[in-house]
């Protein structure tokens, strides 16, 4: 074997660089003054030849000159080539892209092996003809890649970059081949080193010459060499960020972190993919969630009730997997329902939320008893309404000559209500005390608006009966709506009633009057079916605020030692709700909930629970809708349970299918709609077969009493034997048959009110 | 309606020729004609002739047909009456036994012969129909927020012309009042448009606006504002015709209350519907007194009549005209017999109420017949009616829940 071959096989670059690092000072001492002069001149010449665009340090040039014994001609191509080598080796970065860190497939090892040898051979041999020589597949590949790279790269690779790359290269042997480094640590001319190395590796020289890269006998050393480079690559990874901190993550890093599992599956096709790779590969920059995370998230957000979305097959390589995942995400997004629910266990959520006691109370009483004013005062004293707002109301009220209505305006927001000074529709307001959160349902007292009052009372847990204590007004009220309202709320299931004897300031807080009223009202309410223990009386004055939130300051009122109104309200016991029953909600109002929610309904959940994403059926239209938003007491929420006042923002339904009084129910257990039903009724007025309106909450429908089935015994509820009743007298209990023109949603046990000619004729339970 | 010719024998047989003049007369005619009566009227019949070669040609001919009535069909909205039956008189174009449906037309004579003769009810009906004193129609708009019923009241009938229903959001918190007001205005606009589509303003008829609360007032204000804004003079001219009345609800049966209101009575005192409404009201009040002087339901009233309680000195029999329209001849005869007995034997008063008016509907709810008695009768409606339901419902002892 020729010694030249040995020399050629030697990784001279590495040796040189190691030498630079290790024994700079020694080397410097060896150089004589004459040599220095030669070197300086030679360097200048080489610079001239290479031109300014080639970025090489003087030191390197001097080294080469030293090596070639000041032969400028020989040095120049070497330097130029070295630059080339730089870019070629640089390509090896790309080459490692998507290749596994360990367990490299056989075929790839073989191919990779060659590269470090190739440029070195050229360097050593100084053969400028290598360009024209037949190229191996890999070489061709490298050339092609280099060409591409050059096209992409900015014109005139900047110097720092190349130096950095050079350093990178030089770094490898320094750490990876300590033996070599120590071998050449002694200050010798480079040629000596070369000779030494030649001796060590005599067999590698001829291979370089032939360029038959894949001859069978080459396999063994080639693999060994590759293994070496393999182990060398590791420090490179560590080192790289230091060298080019601002650069993109290295291909190695990308390969390692992007898809380690995927790379295990490399097969013969990888090399082809590798060729195509850089152009088609969509780089993943780790900024967002990983593709796997995206898929997992999409899977998790799916509702279990849905048909499982077909999982995109686990891709075998990067580009495919990314595309497939994006497609998969797309598929998932399409199949998702319009309204995504969280599929909560509402009951569990409710238990967890540990809600405050919540109570709705309806404020009832004869017209002008001062219901709205009393409630306005309550809200004002509890600081729910601020001074500024009230001042504004006061000013506006004065302008239209109704100064005393300012407090009522807190609740009477309607234009008509304000101009006429009468409540027309139920006003809902919320306030909280330490123990309970209350919802006020301020009912209209005027007899024409009793349907509205019924709607409010149907949502109430207890009632506040406001009585005008002033002379004459109490008496007229007791005959009028005081009586009717009290009977109505009782027949709608309200057990507890707080009686606020109002306007006591106008009669100088007369205790006699209060006692008289208390007696009459208590007697009446007891006969109406309220238990005495569920009655509480308080003398108060809504306009001045005495005995509402604070105790009365008027000395004339000192005889009253009881608690103010607010304490009586707070003593209400929490009401148990039918949380587990199927959802029932009577639609109170249909309105535009805003730009986002063109169709919203409000009401109180009578039973069951509801959450965002639920599909519900609106009866009697039998139209389904999905709930895209939900508000509990005007606060956005994900769920709601029975007893809460909610606003549902609906999707997938048209407004024409909705009427106030409709019932929202789950599709599985819709409420039945009936056109005729039997009702056990307490008569308020005479009942004969007659026309009437059937009221149930907001629902009202024209109908007829078609048949008086039986008179019932008031105490036992048993039918009175004998002939069919021809007339039901006020105060008696009877079973009657009612027909309505259009089907109405009604369940057994539902409480209905029958009205005719502006009067309540009866109230009862559906049987 | 004009009575053209009357040829009734003592036994009630015979014919009457009538000349209907306005749509209302069709309603009378509908109540007059019963199945199996003989009706002669002009008809337009399509005649198909087949020539010797087999080709057919059809022509329309005006002929006078005599049919035996089998079925009547009255279209309330357009007031058209269609009477179908079999031809019983051969003509040039028709054979006996062929079917024909006569469309009775205004201003064309028809002749009617009763199969069972002209009973008192039928003769009274003719008399009433031919009463020249015309009763003006009245329009009524019964409304509440978001709901309006447009009806026209004629002497004989209440016809619901249109129902308007829109969604009006309720009042909400501060600043959202606009939705309610806007929706209310839209509701008014829709109602007014509908009203103007149905009403003939040139007829100068009274228009009742009835509602609970202030809706009707607000609607009138809206009408006048709209008329001013759009310069609608004919609508402006109706200003005096509008009457705002209180009603308990926006449903049609609130008309009862409307017709009893002083404002309406002042204008329409002598109309048939006002009288009927008043009568029903009186009866109901009597019933509520529960002193045994009011009876309702067929059996009860018949018993009362038998006992002579519906006689001279205040006995009034109220009967709904729908009872006389019974398909079954026997049933009709029963009611006619009762009416005749009260009127002739007992000396009581008989009032036939139109079943299409609200008062008549109220009466229909009571079984179509009621009576105000001259003396109290207890325990009418004998023991023959066994009430099974009572026995069944005994098990329900849930206590007083209401």
Q: What's the SSE pattern of chain B?
A: EEHEEEEEHEEEHEHHEHHHEHEHEHEH
Q: From the structure provided, what is the oligomeric state, counting identical versus distinct chains?
A: heterodimer
The low-confidence runs of chain A, each spanning 5 or more residues with pLDDT under 50, are 21-28, 125-130, 169-198, 209-216, 228-244, 260-281, 304-317, 330-336
Specify the number of helices of chain A.
27
* Distance linking N and C termini of chain A: 114 Å
Q: Name the average pLDDT of chain A.
A: 73
Structural class of chain A: alpha+beta
How far apart the termini of chain B lie comes to 55 Å
Mind telling me the C-alpha Rg of chain B? 26 Å
Query: SS-based structural class of chain B?
Result: alpha+beta
Please give the share of residues in helix of chain B: 25-40%
Keywords, separated by commas or semicolons:
heterodimer, A: 767 residues, alpha+beta, six-stranded mixed sheet, six-stranded antiparallel β-barrel, 27 helices, elongated, B: 402 residues, seven-stranded antiparallel sheet, five-stranded mixed sheet, 12 helices
């Amino acid at each position: 074997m020729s010694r030249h071959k040995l020399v050629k096989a030697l990784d001279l670059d590495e040796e040189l660089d190691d030498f630079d690092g290790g024994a700079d000072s020694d080397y410097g001492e060896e150089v004589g003054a004459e040599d220095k002069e030669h070197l300086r001149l030679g360097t200048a010449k080489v610079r001239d030849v290479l031109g300014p665009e080639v970025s090489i340090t003087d030191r390197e040039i001097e080294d080469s000159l030293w090596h070639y014994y000041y032969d400028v001609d020989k040095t120049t191509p070497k330097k130029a080539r070295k630059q080339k080598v730089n870019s070629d080796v640089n390509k090896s970065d790309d080459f490692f892209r998507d290749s596994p860190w360990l367990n490299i497939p056989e075929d790839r090892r073989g191919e990779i092996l060659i590269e470090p040898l190739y440029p070195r051979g050229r360097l050593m041999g100084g053969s400028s003809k290598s360009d024209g020589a037949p190229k191996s597949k890999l070489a061709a590949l490298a050339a092609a890649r280099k060409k591409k790279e050059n096209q992409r790269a900015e014109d005139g690779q900047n110097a720092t970059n190349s130096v950095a790359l050079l350093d990178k290269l030089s770094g490898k042997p320094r750490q990876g081949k300590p033996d070599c480094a120590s071998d050449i640590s002694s200050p010798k001319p480079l040629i000596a080193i070369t000779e030494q190395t030649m001796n060590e590796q005599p067999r590698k020289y001829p291979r370089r010459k032939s360029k038959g890269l894949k001859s069978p006998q080459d396999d063994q050393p080639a693999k060994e060499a590759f293994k070496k480079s393999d182990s060398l690559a590791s420090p490179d990874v560590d080192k790289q960020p230091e060298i080019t901190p601002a650069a993109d993550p290295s291909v190695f890093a990308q390969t390692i972190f992007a898809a380690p599992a995927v790379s295990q599956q490399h097969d013969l096709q990888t090399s082809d993919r590798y060729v195509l790779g850089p152009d088609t590969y969509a780089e993943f920059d780790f900024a967002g969630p990983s593709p796997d995370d995206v898929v997992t998230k999409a899977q998790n957000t799916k509702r279990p009730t849905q048909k499982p979305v077909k999982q995109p097959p686990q891709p075998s390589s990067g580009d495919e997997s990314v595309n497939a995942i994006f497609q998969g995400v797309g598929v998932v997004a399409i199949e998702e329902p319009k309204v995504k629910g969280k599929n909560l266990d509402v009951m569990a959520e409710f238990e967890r939320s540990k809600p405050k006691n919540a109570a709705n109370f309806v404020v009832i009483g004869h017209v002008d008893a001062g219901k709205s004013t009393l409630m306005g005062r309550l809200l004002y004293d509890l600081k729910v309404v601020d001074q500024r707002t009230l001042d504004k109301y006061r000013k506006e009220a004065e302008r239209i000559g109704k100064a005393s209505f300012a407090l009522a305006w807190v609740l009477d927001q309607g234009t008509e209500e304000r101009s006429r000074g009468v409540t027309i529709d139920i006003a809902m307001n919320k306030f909280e005390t330490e123990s309970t959160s209350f919802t006020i349902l301020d009912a209209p007292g005027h007899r024409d608006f009793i349907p509205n009052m019924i709607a409010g009372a149907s949502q109430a847990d207890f009632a506040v009966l406001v009585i005008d204590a002033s002379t004459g007004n109490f008496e007229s009220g007791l005959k009028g709506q005081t009586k009717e309202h009290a009977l109505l709320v009782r027949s709608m299931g309200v057990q507890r009633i707080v009686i606020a004897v109002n306007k006591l300031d106008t009669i100088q807080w007369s205790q006699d009057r209060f006692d008289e009223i208390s007696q009459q009202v208590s007697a009446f309410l007891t006969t109406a079916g309220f238990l005495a223990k569920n009655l509480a009386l308080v003398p108060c004055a809504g306009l001045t605020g005495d005995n509402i939130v604070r105790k009365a300051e008027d000395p004339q009122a000192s005889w009253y030692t009881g608690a103010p109104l607010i304490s009586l309200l707070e003593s209400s016991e929490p009401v148990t709700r039918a949380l587990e029953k199927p959802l029932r909600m009577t639609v109170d109002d249909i309105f535009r909930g805003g730009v986002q929610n063109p169709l919203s309904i409000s009401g109180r959940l009578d039973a069951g629970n509801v959450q965002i994403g639920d599909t519900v059926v609106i009866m009697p239209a039998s139209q389904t809708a999905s709930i895209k938003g939900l508000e509990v007491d005007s606060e956005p929420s994900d769920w709601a349970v029975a007893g809460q006042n909610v606003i549902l923002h609906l999707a997938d339904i048209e407004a024409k299918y909705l009427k106030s009084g409709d019932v929202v129910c789950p599709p599985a257990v819709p409420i039945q709609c009936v056109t005729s039903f039997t009702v056990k009724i307490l008569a308020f007025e005479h009942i004969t077969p007659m026309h009437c309106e059937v009221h149930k909450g907001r629902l009202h429908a024209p109908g007829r009493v078609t048949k008086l089935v039986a008179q019932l015994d008031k105490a036992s509820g048993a039918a009175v034997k004998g002939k069919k009743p021809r007339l039901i007298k006020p105060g008696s209990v009877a079973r009657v048959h009612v027909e309505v023109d259009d089907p109405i949603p009604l369940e057994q046990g539902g409480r209905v009110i029958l009205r005719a000619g502006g009067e309540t004729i009866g109230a009862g339970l559906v049987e | 309606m004009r009575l053209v010719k009357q040829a009734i024998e003592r036994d009630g047989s015979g014919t009457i020729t009538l000349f209907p003049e306005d749509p209302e007369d069709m309603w009378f005619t509908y109540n007059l004609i019963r199945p199996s009566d003989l009706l002669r009227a002009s008809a337009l019949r399509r005649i198909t002739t087949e020539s010797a070669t087999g080709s057919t040609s059809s022509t329309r001919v005006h002929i006078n047909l005599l049919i035996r009535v089998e079925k009547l069909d009255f279209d309330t909205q357009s007031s058209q009456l269609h009477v179908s039956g079999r031809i019983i008189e051969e003509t040039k174009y028709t054979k006996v036994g062929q079917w024909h449906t006569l469309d009775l037309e205004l201003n064309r004579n028809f002749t009617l012969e009763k199969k069972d003769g002209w009973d008192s009810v039928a003769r009274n009906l003719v008399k009433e129909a031919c009463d020249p004193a015309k009763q003006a129609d009245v329009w009524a708009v019964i409304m509440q927020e978001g709901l309006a019923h447009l009806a026209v009241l004629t002497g004989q009938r209440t016809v619901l012309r249109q129902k308007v229903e829109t969604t009006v959001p309720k009042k909400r918190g501060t600043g959202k009042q606009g939705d309610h007001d806007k929706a209310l205005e839209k509701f008014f606009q829709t109602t007014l448009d509908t009203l103007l589509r149905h009403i003939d303003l040139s007829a100068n008829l009274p228009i009742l606006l009835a509602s609970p609360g202030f809706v009707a007032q607000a609607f009138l204000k809206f009408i006048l504002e709209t008329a001013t804004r759009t310069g609608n003079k004919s609508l402006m001219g109706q200003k005096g015709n509008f009457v705002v009345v209180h009603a308990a609800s926006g449903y049609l049966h609130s008309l009862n209350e409307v017709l009893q209101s002083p404002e309406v009575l002042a204008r329409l005192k002598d109309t048939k519907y006002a009288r009927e409404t008043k009568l029903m009201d009186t009866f109901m009040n009597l019933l509520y007194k529960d002193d045994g002087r009011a009876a309702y339901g067929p059996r009860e009233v018949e018993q009362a009549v038998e006992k002579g309680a519906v006689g001279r000195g205040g006995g009034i029999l109220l009967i709904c005209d729908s009872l006389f329209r019974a398909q079954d001849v026997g049933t009709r005869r029963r009611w006619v017999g009762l009416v005749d007995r009260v009127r002739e034997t007992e000396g009581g008063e008989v009032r036939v109420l139109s079943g299409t008016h609200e008062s008549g509907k109220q009466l229909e709810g009571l079984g179509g017949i009621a009576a105000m008695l001259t003396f109290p009768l207890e325990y009418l409606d004998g023991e023959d009616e066994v009430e099974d339901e009572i026995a069944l419902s005994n098990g329900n002892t849930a206590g007083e829940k209401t």
